[in-house]
Write a structure and sequence with these properties.
single chain; 766 residues; alpha+beta; 12-stranded mixed sheet; 10-stranded mixed sheet; 22 helices; 32% helix; globular; Xaa-Pro-like_dom; CocE/Ser_esterase
Length: 766
Amino acid sequence: MRQLKPSAIMVFIVLILQALTIEYAWSNETYQKPASLVGAKMEQRADALQLLQSDLFRQELNELVQQSKLGTDDASRDDDKIAIASFLSDFQQTHALIAKQKNPLGYFHYSSDAWLRQASPKTDQYDAQALMTLMTTKLGTFSNEDLYKVSYCLGWSLEMGQDFMLNLFKRLKSSDMLKKSDIVRLVTNYQLYKVYERILGTGNQVLSAENDKRYVIEPNLLIKTKSGVSLSAVVVRPKQDAIKRPAAFQFSIYADEAWHIKTAIHAAAHGYIGVIANTRGKRLSPDDIIPWEKDGEDATQVIDWITQQAWSDGRVAMYGGSYLGFTQWAAAKYMHPALKTIVPYAAANPMTGLPIENNIFITPNYQWAFHVTNNKTMDHSVYADRKYWDDVFENLYKSGRAFRDIDKVEGTPNPWFQKWLKHPDYDSYYQQMLPYKNDYKKINIPVLSITGYFDGGQISAIDFLKQHYQYNPKANHTLLIGPYSHGTAQGVPYSHHSNYQLDPVALEKDTEELTFQWFDYVLFNKPRPALLKDKVNYQLMGSNTWQHHPSLQKLNQEAQTFYLGTTQDQDAYYRLTSSKPSMLSFVAQTVDLADRSTTNNDAGMWPLIHKQLPKSNGLVFVTEPFTETMQLAGSITGHFSIAINKRDVDIGYNFYAISPEGEVVFLNYYIGRASYAHDMSVRKLLTPGKKTQVPIVNARMTAKLLPPGSRLVIVLDVNKNSNAQVNMGTGKDVSDETSADGKEPLEIKWFSDSKLMIPLKPWRLK
């Protein structure tokens, strides 16, 4: 339930609910739900708040904890262990667990609460004066960097916490009984909320006063651009400082004054002028809100404004994640001479991420347009009920209606999404937003891209890198990638992603600290960040090492070639064979696209680790067990050879590793539209019955150490589920197709000369 920065709230904000779906290996023992929860009305935020403040509910939780014998060993994540120790009033263990963390100040809320409750006659409360004294004493002694770390910890919203708890209460209320995993979720999130409820108001009051002593904070600047647009901005600089400094600049659609101040303070703590400007129409801007379209030219004019300020030394470095990664690339299209470097993390691109993935419109984050355009700041309410949106997408899918009817099914007009639906090609609409082809030749500044294997928008970040090198072979572009999600790619990783425990070295990445190290390296000739030893830096899962390579393209070429076998084994699996077939054959698959009682190509990404291969309607292709330790590192390339009875098809696959013991690890997934596989800007329909090659484009990267006896699995399928449009294959605009267009089932032949190059080589520890 940890609250994310606005940049992390962007694409895949639904990951804020990850804690609801983590899988643990507990017994099947179940427990009665608290009576207060059973009898509570759970329809709005106020209902959740009433339960959170109920003494009876607290008493029932205590009884549930005692009955289940809940302890810190019942949790996998350190955050949950700390929350359980705090709930149990085990102050010694709370402090000990916090002390073990790489960033103990990230748990300042828990440690402060523990100190105060230890000193109080009643361990469940403390007085206001004691809280004020503690905060004033502690915060006044912190360095600028430590004060920022505490501000990040205190950058939490009780209202968003109530929304989260409303969702959690709803889910648990609808279940018959509680499992041990449910009790962990309930207790840890309840305790997190109650700790923040006690300390947040006073903590932020003292924090604000302390920051005012150290910085000049200008929260309400309005920049008038040469094109007549007014843009809202926050500027923070060290107090009593006449030194001209470079600006660390973010350009954000996520208007949140408090977060902008925190972010800009962090830049100032590192010796930069912190500048956070909002896109047009946001916060104080009187103009219309326009996502995506004008950000490059507007950001460039803000850069121009920065260089004219008395505190500027004429240099600007941009950084930030998700949508803020997009705005950096949009600005780089114009290459203002003052722009010296960019550091986009988990960078978004509307064509290769959201709302489109490889020319396929997808539903995750459909509500984002409401989130950023409903008001001048952010409308968090649209993300308050994930089940509501899941039901919307499921209803649309099962109805068989045209994808263009999505807002009619939901009931609220979504004009921005409807506008994007009119642009299924990579046409001039997108080309004018971002660097396009030869525009990359002008981008001769150092670039650091950061993303994660489990970042849903990874393909955008890597596509920017590939395009940069394709059109500018001399580009200075560095990549860092590891086992991170969209959120943790932008910040500090957790000990676990789903039920996968990260290697210790993977926890060494702190994205903002790495960013400022990079800025120091580029602008002040300081040492290159230690993690960035080459152009491609990746954490090899399972090896506890970082690996380094001079080129992503060459890394992908260090591959073994596999073909599709056409004979099933006793498990009904086909073979991924390294031998080129001597005779052409195929595997036939029939998919009734009009039948919405079934799905195809559902991703098995959560939980990450499975006891067995998830069931699906796809075709399972598996390698022989490896006879030696192998390194899998890079993206799958190659092509599928297919023939269909229609004019188009959306291809998908799920990629897994199976350990010698049979444990199945989800690695990544892929979807792509055959008619755009050769050129995302021009649709070329297939000829029914004709064999054709469909290239794999923008496949996700992964990296994992595979011990002897391991196998790799691709579950190959046609994409048909509620997460995306269903391509009926008529050749019409897919947004207009309905299930009525699928009277004839799709028949697809997967030919044995399909060529998959998997980046796989024997492991040699250097």
